[in-house]
Structure formats: structure tokens, C-alpha cells
């Protein structure tokens, strides 16, 4: 297999691995009602049982990130496969808080290892188009959530099948991504190719710019993923299917990321982040008041906002702080997921103590509101400057 064909095959395999990751989010969102009824969990307990998907993700990225440079991308990918496998099996056979918690933890670790391996893989394969290709790779996060959301609606709402059947659907992309990666030659990470030393890497990671972006990732990830993870419960009084809204939002996100190239050229990464913060804030405010079909309009504005958050945060670090390497990308992604694990139970307390779950959207709008000011500063600072190589 020539270099171009091998790169294409590896990119496709990475996308399938990300589909498994994203489908788990949609599946959990659909199972919130099951946990509330069959498992008799409160809103706070549901937040806690969902949390290991996020801090497990963080743990895997922070450990897997530096190991990618030392052991290679391939070994981390196979660790992700076996963790995903264990998590899916444990979830199917779960029967209470603790058994579901264990399955969620293994799935979270598998998800984190996928990100720890595949983000630097894509950045290494496409050094000349990092923002474009990382956005294109992350098409399959919302893409997989659309798949999982639609499957959840069809299998559970239309066909009335047991929830375990929905979880078992995760085996399909799991097996496919293992098959696609099997026997392929994977490149070294970009930091290894550049010959950047460990001391240079750590210097980049404690730089003021990296620390600012790390803080921003706490807010961007919570804005997007915390909201989407609890969307079914947040919209339970809005006279609309939360799982269909989840699929709708992620469909918009997938389209936006697929055509990110022209947006990158027009706005640059800092402009994209500022744009995202503004629309996310407006979308959350609109969602706090919308009901019925108006929810789709509010969800559209929110989707436009969060579309570029995650991949563009990674792209900014890969482009502006390339010396941070795979560890830098893992820290950024890991902190994002860690923030979600903290915010989910807090959201649960708002939902338990409020007559209208939708009011929680209004509280969440504070996060992108703060980001508007930070990203405006970055936009003014880097406007017209060349990207570091």
C-alpha cells in the first residue's frame, strides 16, 4: 500500500474509532430515562453515574498522551479497542448504579485513548492542513451521535426493544475500526518527527498561552458536551423529543465540520472560537425559553455555535504550540472531559431543584459568555500573524 492510500485508510479507521466514542454519548443520553425509572436514580445520581465517562476519558488521555510518543500510536489504539470492548459488555449486563458505573468507566477510558492516539495521528499525517483535517476527523463525533440518536429513537421508541439492544449496536463500528487498523503502518507523532525534547515539550505546556487555552477548554467542553449529554432530561417539558433534538444538533455540527476548510481560511482559529462562543451563548439563552417546534430553531443556533469548539481548540494548540506534542493535545482534551464530569452533577442539582429543567440552559449560558471576552482578546492578539511551524 502506497503512502497516500495508507494515510487515507488510517484516517478512515480513525473516524470509525471516533464513531464508537460519539455513539456512546448518544446511547447514554437515551438511557437517562431508563436510569431514572428502571434503576431508580435521581438527577444527581445520573450525573454521577455518567461522570466516569468523562473523568475516565481524562485519565486515559493524560496517561495515554505521553505514552503515544514512547510506545507509538498503534499500541494505544489497541488499548482503546479492548477498553471499549470491556465497557460495552459491562454496560449490557449492568443492573444497578455500580455496575453501570463500571461499564461507563471502561467506555470512558476507551474514548480517551482513541482521542489520545488519533488526534496526534491526524495532526502528524496532515501537518499542512491541521485545522481542516482535525475538523474533518471530528465530523464523526457529531456524526456518530446522530447515528446513535436515530438508532435510539428507532430501537427504543418505535420498535420498543430493550435498551441492551441499543448498547449492542456499538459492537458494529468497534469491530470495523479494529479491522481497518489491523496490519497498518502508523507514523510517528509530530513531536518525535520534529525532534522536540522533553524539556521543550514541558516548557510549551506551562507557557501562558497553553494555560489560557487549557482554562478555555474547561468552558468550551462543558458548554457543548454537558448540555448534549443531558439534553433529553433538559427538554422533557418542552413538548419535543430530546433524542431527536440531539440528532438534529449533531447533524448540523457534522455538516459544519465537513466544510470547515473555507471557514478556517476566512476566520482563522481565533476567529472561529470567537464566533462559536457568541452563537453558543445565544443558543443556550434561546433554549431556556423555547418549547415545541421553536426548540429546533434555538437548537440550530446552539449547534452553529458548538460546531467548531472542540476541533478548533485542538487545532489552535497543534498550530500555535506544536512543541507541546501529543501530550499537549491530550491535556487539552482531557481537561475538557474532566470539566464535564464536574458540571454534570451540578446540572443535575439544578434540574432536581427547578420546576423547569430548561432553566438550566440559562445557567449554562454563563460559560460561553465568559469565553466571548477571552477569545476576543486572542483574536485581536493573533489577527494577521503567521502560524508557527
From TrEMBL:
The keyword Protein biosynthesis does not apply. It holds the Pfam family MFS_1. The chain crosses the membrane at residues 39-64, 76-95, 101-125, 137-155, 161-183, 204-222, 242-260, 272-290, 296-318, 325-348, 360-380. The keyword Metal-binding does not apply. PROSITE patterns: MFS. GO terms for molecular function: transmembrane transporter activity. Residues 10-383 form the Major facilitator superfamily (MFS) profile domain. It is found in: Endomembrane system. It is a multi-pass membrane protein. One of its GO terms (cellular component) is membrane. Its main location: membrane. It comes from the Bacteria. Belongs to the major facilitator superfamily. This is Major facilitator superfamily (MFS) profile domain-containing protein. It comes from Echinicola pacifica.
Amino acid at each position: 500500500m502506497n503512502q497516500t492510500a495508507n494515510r487515507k485508510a488510517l484516517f478512515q479507521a480513525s473516524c470509525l474509532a471516533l464513531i464508537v466514542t460519539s455513539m456512546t454519548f448518544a446511547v447514554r443520553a437515551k438511557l437517562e430515562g431508563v436510569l431514572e425509572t428502571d434503576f431508580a436514580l435521581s438527577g444527581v445520581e445520573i450525573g454521577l453515574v455518567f461522570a466516569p465517562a468523562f473523568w475516565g476519558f481524562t485519565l486515559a488521555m493524560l496517561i495515554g498522551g505521553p505514552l503515544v510518543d514512547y510506545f507509538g500510536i498503534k499500541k494505544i489504539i489497541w488499548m482503546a479497542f479492548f477498553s471499549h470492548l470491556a465497557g460495552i459488555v459491562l454496560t449490557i449486563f449492568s443492573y444497578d448504579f455500580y455496575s453501570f458505573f463500571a461499564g461507563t468507566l471502561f467506555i470512558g477510558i476507551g474514548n480517551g485513548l482513541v482521542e489520545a492516539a488519533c488526534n496526534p495521528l491526524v495532526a502528524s499525517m496532515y501537518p499542512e492542513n491541521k485545522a481542516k483535517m482535525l475538523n474533518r476527523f471530528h465530523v464523526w463525533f457529531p456524526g456518530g451521535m446522530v447515528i446513535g440518536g436515530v438508532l435510539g429513537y428507532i430501537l427504543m421508541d418505535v420498535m420498543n426493544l430493550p435498551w441492551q439492544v441499543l448498547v449492542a449496536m456499538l459492537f458494529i463500528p468497534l469491530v470495523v475500526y479494529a479491522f481497518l487498523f489491523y496490519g497498518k503502518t502508523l507514523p510517528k507523532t509530530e513531536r518525535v518527527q520534529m525532534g522536540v525534547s522533553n524539556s521543550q515539550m514541558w516548557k510549551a505546556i506551562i507557557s501562558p498561552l497553553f494555560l489560557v487555552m487549557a482554562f478555555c477548554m474547561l468552558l468550551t467542553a462543558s458548554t457543548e458536551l454537558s448540555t448534549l449529554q443531558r439534553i433529553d432530561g433538559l427538554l422533557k417539558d418542552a413538548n419535543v423529543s430530546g433524542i431527536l433534538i440531539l440528532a438534529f444538533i449533531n447533524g448540523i455540527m457534522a455538516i459544519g465540520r465537513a466544510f470547515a476548510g473555507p471557514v478556517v481560511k476566512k476566520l482563522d482559529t481565533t476567529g472561529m472560537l470567537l464566533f462559536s462562543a457568541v452563537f453558543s451563548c445565544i443558543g443556550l439563552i434561546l433554549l431556556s425559553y423555547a418549547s415545541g417546534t421553536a426548540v429546533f430553531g434555538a437548537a440550530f443556533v446552539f449547534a452553529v455555535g458548538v460546531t467548531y469548539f472542540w476541533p478548533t481548540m485542538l487545532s489552535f494548540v497543534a498550530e500555535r504550540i506544536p512543541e507541546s506534542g501529543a501530550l499537549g493535545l491530550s491535556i487539552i482534551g482531557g481537561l475538557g472531559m474532566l470539566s464535564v464530569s464536574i458540571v454534570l452533577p451540578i446540572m443535575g442539582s439544578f434540574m432536581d431543584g427547578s420546576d423547569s429543567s430548561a432553566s438550566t440552559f440559562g445557567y449554562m449560558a454563563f460559560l460561553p459568555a465568559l469565553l466571548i471576552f477571552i477569545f476576543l482578546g486572542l483574536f485581536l492578539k493573533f489577527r494577521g500573524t503567521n502560524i508557527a511551524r
